[in-house]
Write a structure and sequence with these properties.
The complex is a heterodimer of chains A (about 500) and B (about 525). Chain A has about 500 residues and is an alpha+beta fold. Chain A is about 25% helix and about 35% strand. Chain A is built from 13 helices and 27 strands. Chain A has an eight-stranded antiparallel beta sheet. In chain A, strands 11, 12, 13, 18, 19, 26 and 27 form a seven-stranded mixed beta sheet that branches. In chain A, strands 22-21-20-23-24-25 form a six-stranded parallel beta sheet, covered by helices on one side. The mean pLDDT of chain A is about 90. Chain B is of the alpha/beta class and about 525 residues long. Chain B has 18 helices and 26 strands. In chain B, the strands form eight sheets. Chain B has a seven-stranded mixed beta sheet, sandwiched between helices. The longest helix of chain B has 28 residues. In chain B, strand 9, helix 8 and strand 10 form a beta-alpha-beta unit. Chain B folds into three domains: about 60 residues, no CATH class; about 220 residues, Aldehyde Dehydrogenase, Chain A, domain 1 (3-Layer(aba) Sandwich), CATH 3.40.605; about 200 residues, Aldehyde Dehydrogenase, Chain A, domain 2 (3-Layer(aba) Sandwich), CATH 3.40.309. Classes of the chains: A alpha+beta (about 500), B alpha/beta (about 525). Chains A and B meet through strand 4 and helix 2 of A and helix 2 and helix 13 of B.
Chain lengths: ~500, ~525
């Protein structure tokens, strides 16, 4: 006979649960029509498909072991029997219910018996819940495997360009073999989110669910996933797909793959051409290659912005060898800038913050800068002329590029990270004079992003964050537009569910 | 309670009715009563089989019963068959063919009463009648019988009155083990081994013995008796699986085994080791290819034969390859037919779905396919007999899956393995110049080999199919996938379907062996 079982956990102590299980006349849960004690044993009537299953069972108790064993004396089954077993589990208890039976119609047994088993186990689970007030099924399938309906999850969406974000529900794709299902804990508010939702870059697709600074915990993995396990702390950044085959991908520079897919507002060519939806949501499903490990020492809220702002600054600092003996200027002290300062300092470079005013001087020095200069003071440009090996530009406003190029030492580089959609006005002489370079850089590859997370964990680097509820997203967008945040808003994803 | 007439069949061994020593019977309680109120019906069946209730007083839900065979009876049947075999083998081929034709006629006459019993056992009425019809139309048709006869003996006259003959001689005693999902048709198919000159033992499965026993007793036995066949030529008994006994018995030559591929191939090895010829009818994972120029309505009707008996028959379509140009239009038709296919009681008109024995596997197959990237277009729920969704129902909604690309199809078990439930994965490959050849390759790489169907008009492609598709028992072009046609084989196949010796299966051919006979006059030169 095939044994069917269900295991439950409840906060009620084992002795009390065992005691209650010995009074079946108090079982009045949904599936049970009646239980009556008789001379022969307890007479059960259980609802089954509009009719009843009836039997009388005799029960024996082993008090020391907290085990009840029961067998059919007479009834509808050919054979029927089982047990209750209660064991202490911390201050509560674990209850295992086992049942085995045989019926008399062999050619339909395959259809009938699993359904009888399901009804018996559900009744047992209901009995435990009823007796203990609170019980959780920890083992045993009381339902069929989900037939792959697309899971529906809570999210915040912008219905059209420039519109305010509002709560909604969206469908995530069912888990593919290489997919990781992630419960999002935090999602950072990147300046790009504000631009994209506003339609500034002209290529947005709406309704849009933004968010590409995602930190959470793995809840599910596909059949072929090898890099992540359920319970892992993970992050998802700016891209969720690439061709994995081109020269860029092969070198680990997936961010420069011509066929890369962004985390939101992109067409996911690798998953049926559906639009991607970002991290302003409770859950996301992502190919494991684009899911990063977040080391245990990094708090998830502080880690979230590293997935975009962190790697965006780390990658160029590494590429242009920021380190001991190198002078690095960080232009702009916002979401990107504050991480650029922390990381450049941790890499061993001599770091100067160039900020519009003296307002953030204390912060700049606290974050690890060696020097702080205000760019609204014209003397700054004379003072620092020819100084820096690297100027990291994190602002997205219009600049006098020639003036900043003049700050570069011979052979130095000014690298653009902040995005402005206006053309830069640059005099070629500014580049010729010191053989300087004007460059750009865009996030980082997956391997480098992982390296950045590990580096940040090692050096205790997280973003300085202001955690907000989802209801404050629109307010946060306004404040980002006005530079009024120190230094990153991070949304508590549990608040997406209204 | 009134008494009513029941069909009670003792075992039929050596031409005699034989009862179990303790008078035990397995009783048939109607599938309707089990579906209506399950637990009391199960309890009644148990009490009937235990002899605690008089079946004549048990009410209309009891239709009859078959005597249970014990080990002694099972052994006696083999001995009786062995005794009858030599004499029966000497009956002329002409006489045996005549017997075959008469079995066909009698099957036609007894059709409706057999259908009633099949319905009582749970076969939908809409399927039971047509299935029986296909047997007299195909296996017992003059075209099939004369084709088999033409293979049985060919003689060449040699000089001085000598002759050279190549003939097929019967193996001796053939035991037949029909499956529960299609017991009666496979028992009738098994009876065709008689026509080759073999003595036959057929075991009716305990779950559904009554229609099978009735068909054999009312159709085949009278024809044999009228023809004066020796007693023991056909023996019929109901009992637990007897393959171990058959493998050990010196009386047995061939065993016709119908069942799953895994168990069947294991059985094949055991049979060979025991020196018995295994004739296997195992799982199929049939493919239907629908090309861009196909008649989509006809193709959709053929494909949805998958829903018959909830997909729990072997010769139905198991997966589809749809040309991308017509995939959406075909899927639309399939989903519409799936949505209109309802469960019900087997005696009701228009019902083809039956309770699903491996429903958990059905849902696991769907979930797995979806995880791999397939899309579920319809289905995915359990249903009650009245068609309402219920997660304790015995039926499942027919499911249609869309699988994009042959690569995904190759790695998806719901496509590559037999699924025994109403589940239709429809593979939509990407179009390219070599697509037809790639599809033929895909069909050829199927590890199973029962049937494959093509819906295509282009004559050049039809020529390519006949030239290149050499696996499987039957290749259909533009016809019902599962229909049995006169002359064409109804059973058999290659790969996991037929085992090492698998091929299209006419039992007259498969339970005989080739022999050359050389008669010379005037001595060797």
């Amino acid at each position: 006979m095939k044994e069917h079982r269900v295991a439950l956990r409840t906060p009620m102590p084992a002795d009390e649960v065992f005691d209650r299980l010995q009074h079946p006349e108090s079982f009045t849960e949904a599936g049970i029509e009646s239980v009556e004690p008789t001379a022969e044993g307890d007479r059960y009537a259980l609802r089954f498909r509009g009719g009843l299953a009836r039997w009388i069972q005799r029960t024996e108790a082993d008090h020391a072991a907290r085990v009840l064993k029961f067998d059919q004396v007479s009834g509808d089954f050919v054979d029927f029997g089982g047990s209750w077993e209660v064991t202490p589990d911390g201050t509560g208890s674990r209850i295992v219910h086992r049942v085995a039976f045989r019926t008399s119609v062999p050619h339909l047994a395959g259809a009938i018996e699993p359904m009888i088993a399901r009804v018996l186990l559900r009744a047992a689970a209901d009995v435990v819940s009823g007796l203990t007030g609170e019980a959780e099924v920890v083992e045993g399938a009381l339902h069929d495997e989900a037939p792959g309906a697309k899971p529906s999850v809570a999210a915040y969406t912008a219905p059209s360009a420039g519109a305010a974000l509002e709560p909604t529900t969206i469908e995530r794709r069912p888990l593919g073999p290489h997919d990781v299902g992630i419960a999002i804990h935090y999602c950072g508010v990147c300046h790009s989110d504000v631009h994209q939702v506003h339609g500034d870059w002209g290529d947005g697709t709406f309704p849009m669910v933004p968010g590409h600074e995602i930190a959470g915990v793995v809840t599910e993995i596909g059949a072929d996933v090898t890099r992540h396990a359920v319970g892992d702390r993970v992050g998802v950044g700016v891209i969720v797909g690439s061709c994995r085959d081109c020269g860029m991908c092969v070198q680990g520079l997936e961010q420069y793959c011509a066929k890369s897919v962004e985390t939101y507002a992109a067409i996911d060519r690798y998953h049926g051409g559906e639009p991607t939806r970002g991290g302003y949501s409770t859950h996301i499903v992502t190919d494991e290659h684009f899911v990063l490990r977040i080391p245990d020492s990094l708090p998830l809220d502080q880690a979230a912005p590293l997935l975009c702002a962190g790697i965006t600054t780390y990658s160029p600092l590494k590429h242009w060898d920021a380190g001991p003996g190198k002078k690095v200027a960080v232009l702009g002290l916002g979401g990107l800038g504050h991480l650029a300062v922390k990381i450049a300092h941790a890499l061993g470079a001599e770091v100067t913050v160039l900020s519009r005013s003296e307002r953030k001087k204390d912060d700049g020095l606290r974050l690890g800068a060696d020097h702080f200069h205000a760019t609204d003071d014209p003397a700054t440009f004379d003072l620092l002329a020819g100084t820096f090996d690297l100027v990291v530009c994190t602002v997205s406003s219009r600049l006098d590029v020639d003036a900043y190029l003049s700050l570069l030492a011979n052979g130095g580089t000014m690298v653009y990270l902040g995005i402005t959609d206006e053309p830069l006005g640059v005099s070629v002489f500014s580049l010729l004079r010191g053989r300087t370079s004007l460059a750009g850089s865009q996030i980082g590859g997956m391997a480098e992003t992982q390296e950045m997370l590990d580096f940040c964990a090692e050096h205790g680097i997280g973003a300085d964050v202001e955690v907000i509820d989802a209801t404050r997203i629109n307010e946060a967008f306004d404040r980002v537009r006005h530079g009024d945040v120190r230094y990153r808003f991070v949304i508590d994803a549990s608040t997406f569910e209204s | 309670m009134t008494m009513h007439d029941l069909l009670m069949y003792p075992a039929y061994i050596d031409g005699k009715d034989v009862e179990h020593p303790e008078g035990r019977y397995v009783h048939t309680v109607t599938a309707r009563s089990v579906l209506e109120d399950t637990m009391p019906a199960l309890a009644l069946k148990r009490d009937l089989d235990a002899g605690l209730v008089d079946p004549r007083r048990a009410g209309p839900s009891v239709v009859g019963g078959c005597a249970l065979a014990d080990d002694r009876m099972a052994a006696d049947a083999l001995e009786a068959a062995a005794r009858a075999a030599p004499e029966w083998a000497r009956t002329s081929l002409i006489d045996r063919l005549e017997i075959g034709a008469r079995i066909g006629e009698r099957l036609r006459e007894k059709r409706d009463e057999i259908v009633e019993l099949l319905v009582a056992e749970g076969q939908p009425r809409d399927l039971a009648g047509p299935t029986l019809d296909e047997y007299w139309l195909a296996d017992f048709s003059s075209e099939t019988l004369s084709f088999c006869a033409s293979q049985m003996q060919t003689s060449k006259h040699r000089g001085r009155g000598g002759h050279a003959t190549v003939r097929r001689v019967p193996d001796g005693v053939v035991c037949v083990n029909p499956p529960q999902n299609a017991s009666t048709p496979n028992a009738l198919f098994g009876a065709t081994a008689l026509l080759a000159g073999n003595a036959v033992v057929i075991r009716a499965p305990r779950g559904v013995p009554l229609a099978t026993t009735h068909a054999l007793r009312e159709v085949v036995v009278p024809v044999l008796e009228e023809a004066g066949a020796p007693t023991g030529t056909l023996n019929i008994l109901c009992g637990p699986p007897m393959t171990d006994l058959w493998l050990q018995s010196p009386h047995v030559d061939d065993i016709v085994y119908v069942g799953s591929s895994a168990k069947g191939l294991e059985f094949e090895r055991a049979a060979v080791a025991a020196g018995k010829k295994p004739v296997l009818e195992l799982a199929g994972n049939d493919c239907v290819v629908v090309w861009a120029d196909a008649d989509l309505d006809a193709a959709a009707t053929s494909i949805t034969e998958n829903f018959r008996q909830s997909g729990q028959i072997c010769n139905i379509p198991n997966h589809v390859i749809a040309h991308p140009a017509i995939a959406d239009a075909l899927l639309e038709r399939l989903v519409a037919i799936a949505a209109a296919t309802k469960p019900g009681y087997p005696d009701e008109e228009g019902v083809v779905l039956t309770p699903v024995l491996m429903a958990e596997q059905h849902f696991a197959d769907i979930a797995d396919a979806v995880r791999r990237g397939a899309r579920l277009l319809h289905g995915g729920r359990r249903l009650e007999v009245d068609g309402s969704p219920s997660d304790t129902g015995f039926f499942v909604e027919p499911a249609v899956l869309r699988v994009d690309g042959l690569d995904l199809a190759r790695s998806t078990p719901a496509v590559r393995e037999e699924t025994f439930s109403p589940l239709l994965p429809v593979v939509v490959p990407e179009n390219h110049d070599g697509l037809f050849d790639e599809v033929l390759e895909f069909v050829g790489s199927n590890r199973y080999g029962l049937r494959n169907s093509f819906w295509v008009e282009d004559e050049r492609l039809i020529a390519a199919i006949t030239a290149k598709v050499t696996t499987g028992g039957v290749v259909n072009v533009n016809d019902s996938h599962s229909a049995f046609r006169p002359f064409l084989p109804t059973h058999g196949g290659t790969g996991l379907t037929g085992g090492v010796f698998g091929e299209a299966n006419y039992l007259m051919l498969r339970t005989t062996r080739l022999q050359g006979v050389n008669v010379k006059r005037g001595g060797a030169r």
